[in-house]
Amino acid sequence: MPSLQHADVIVVGNSSDDPFAIDVAFGVGQAEDIADLISMKTFANGEFCPRFINDEQRLEKVGHDLDGKTVVIVSTSNRAMSRNALAMRNLLIARAAKDNGAADVVLVEPDLYYSAQDRGPRADQGRMHFERDLEDRKKFDGQPFSSRLYAQMLRLAGVEEVITVHNHSVSVQAEFSDVFEGRFHNLIPYEIYADYLSKANIIDASSTGEGLVLCAPDKGARDFVREMYRVLDLPDAKFIMLDKERSGERQVEISLHPESDSTFDEISGHDIVLFDDMVRTGSTVVQSCEFLKQVKPRKTVFAVTHFYASQEGREKMANPAIDEILALNTLPTVLNRDVQGRLRKKMVVLKIEQWLARNLCEIIGLPRPSGEGLYQIDMSSKNHRFKRKIYSNDQLAELNETPLPLDWNG
Question: What is the pTM for the complete model shown?
Fold first, then answer.
């Protein structure tokens, strides 16, 4: 792809005041406010009609104001609209871009919609890492293969490229790769987790990783956690993998997988960081951490990319078996203290807009944004690791009344 200039790229959200989209646009280097680039109109009959804002005096540009430009749609879920409604808005924004001359439309959706509906009732509706038997197909009997439909609808609307974060489904990845002819990017946040674990005081391990255990909660997470081990580059850190056998919708039996590198005796008294891509009800992670308490760890940390947790999940994860929770803001509602509930006392959220903007620039051919930061940190003052920096009067004046950042290095 040829190198683009900032003037050739327009970043919008699926709502004009989406803070996540605004931060990504800022990270890319866009000077204009999203609200000044696109109007999110709704007709009296309730139908949504986005409108890219242009110079109304330039009549010769009617229908061509976006000629040659790349339009990036940043799509995140929120509490005001359903994911179904947001998906439809994505389609109409993409079509508005193409109908006004956009050369390329890119969807950035950190938590890809319909990924849970990743296969259908027929044998050819979904490619998994296992052979689909009749029992697996029966689970989807009568349902649509929604992730395939969503990919096809996005492509029909004009989206040519999709960027997401830590998608868990082999089937979804295969479908989107096919529909978008390889222009599908599943970004895995290894460097974010590695940076925070190495610089913050969330774990107590030596410079070589002595005292640290990385844990994969199941076989599906093994490759991710193995790569985390490699990225961290801590030769004395240990790796274990758990095995879970589901006996009901919320009942699982946890055991140490025979392929684990270490035994229980070898990890006694260590800090254990358990990684997963998502959490919904919290049942499995709580049972896993309760199981790990057998080795009397110094601390158990649950690191999760997509924090879907329902009220049931939040109540379960308040269990003392989980000492700390490390989450990303792929679902921005996790930043809401009411959503966090009692978990705010042991939760830290890493805001990934800077990291996402950096990857976006690399993918679409923009110059790499300046600055070394990968993420920002959001932590409740109720968290025992919360500290606020102390500034001189001159430094406070320079901050110009901006919120004081957290001293996450302690």
Answer: 0.91
